[in-house]
Amino acid sequence: MPEDHTVKIDGKRWLLRFTRLTGDAAGWTYFDNAKRPRILIDERLRGGTRLETILHELAHAVLGPTISEESITELARVQRRVLTALGYKEVHDESGR
Predict the structure, then answer these.
(1) 50: Cβ–Cβ under 8 A, 6 or more apart, which residues?
(2) Which residues are CB-contacts of 41 (< 8 A; sequence separation ≥ 6)?
């Protein structure tokens, strides 16, 4: 079952959904003007891979579609490395989310 969140980016409400994705992608960012913009993250990801994918897709949403995939990937890797070194960890509430 998808896990949905709302995030506000540059004054616009985005859907952040953790769901099962097909294919090789760990995440997707959609800028569709006809619908609410959305970020999809594969719900099976855990730990550092999950964090890096969230950071990667958020960077796409904040910086827009014109920034290179290589730059977005490097930004997410650096952020993950720094946050991990500082001791940030994924915490779940009592429901397991």
Answers:
(1) 41, 90
(2) 16, 17, 18, 19, 21, 26, 27, 50, 53, 54, 57
What is the separation, in whole angstroms, between the first and last Cα of the chain? 12
Per-residue pLDDT 10s for the chain (97 aa) are: 789 999 999 999 999 999 999 999 999 999 877 678 999 999 999 999 999 999 999 999 999 989 999 999 999 999 999 999 999 887 766 555 5
Statement: the pTM of the whole predicted model exceeds 0.70: yes
Residues whose CB is less than 8 angstroms from the CB of residue 79 and which lie 6 or more positions away in sequence, other chains included: 52, 55
The residue to which tokens 């079952």 are assigned: 1
Q: Residue ranges per domain, the chain?
A: 3-85
